[in-house]
Amino acid sequence: MASDNRLPLVIFAVLVLLVGAPVAYRVAREQLRPRLVEVCVVTSSGEDPTFRSGPRSVPPGHDVEVAAALRLKRLWRRSTWLAPAPRLEIRGREVEHVQSAIWPDTTRSVRVFWFTVESTNVGGTLAADNAARRLQYRSFLAPEMGRDLLATRYPEAHNDDHLGPQPDTTPIDAGTLRFYARVEIFDPERDAHPTQAASSLGVDRLLDHDFPAVHRGGQFPEGVEPAVGELFLLPGFELQEGSMDDLEEVTRSAFGMGFSELVDRRLVVSSATFAATALGGTASIDTDRVTSAGAIIFDGDVVRRQGTQLLWNEDVLPGDAIREGGHWVIVLEDDGNGVLDSPDSIIHCWRRSPTKTTVGAVLAESPVELELIRRAH
Predict the structure, then answer these.
(1) In Å, what is the CA distance from 90 to each residue of 64, 149, 249, 346, 357?
(2) What is the pTM of this model?
(3) Each residue's pLDDT tens digit, 83-111
């Protein structure tokens, strides 16, 4: 009789085991899966192939690769890094890692949503009542970078996508871009909803010194500082009214930093700071290192001094600056006729991101008096 009483209990226990074992297995399996705990954007360049977090300055002519490094945690194990890179440095220290672009769980896949982090404006004028709004940055989806841990290609700027073509400008392989990545882990056989997700430093951490950025120098004629290339793609602003000292105070009140410091951090630029960087490599012009070469006139076609055309490599040199009030222009190259005139190439910044264009595209068509400035030798 006692055995008859135990039979239902045995059957119940067996049923509980049959039902509970798969559940327990699934719970245990989920607990043992790698967990995504951190995402870090890392970059490498042709001259420095180690993938590093934080900002990176790149000389002209070097390719750049962008990747996402993932820190994983497994139950009862130390966290490890995974990245599609042979060498990896995080926050200044080389770290051991698994070199792979595949999530280490065959039943899960990884996808990356890549973004650039750029100013909401390409430029304009600043005043005390609009600086905080116009100096804001945000993320822009960069689909050309693909969906893998190693970006398919280096991205383009996206904050000017709404603008029309600029036929008078020449693309230049330089400039500063910042990056943000959202990484998702998902089950490709069930649905596209992520089972895990994490992101790199966001726009709220923009001023952190380890925010991921690439500052690419430009390839210019001798006489132009390559560092000025790093200012391309940044928003170009001028003060609505007042002096440079007023501009410093406007941005300090709105952004917590003076304008020159923002230029040094490669967050913003103006015409004067762009020219100063081209002439001397810093945001402020060193008056001991530049000299005025006198007044000149542009008549809509040719630049003259006292009625005489300016000859290249005699009266004007690559890297010389032409100033019209607060607007500075850096001359680059002759178009081939030996005199400074409308088709000659220049770089400048005026109320929008810096561009490479021509003398005639930026100076007034009617006769205007200018000042020629060059570095003292």
Answers:
(1) 17, 16, 35, 39, 39
(2) 0.89
(3) 999 999 999 999 999 999 999 998 999 99
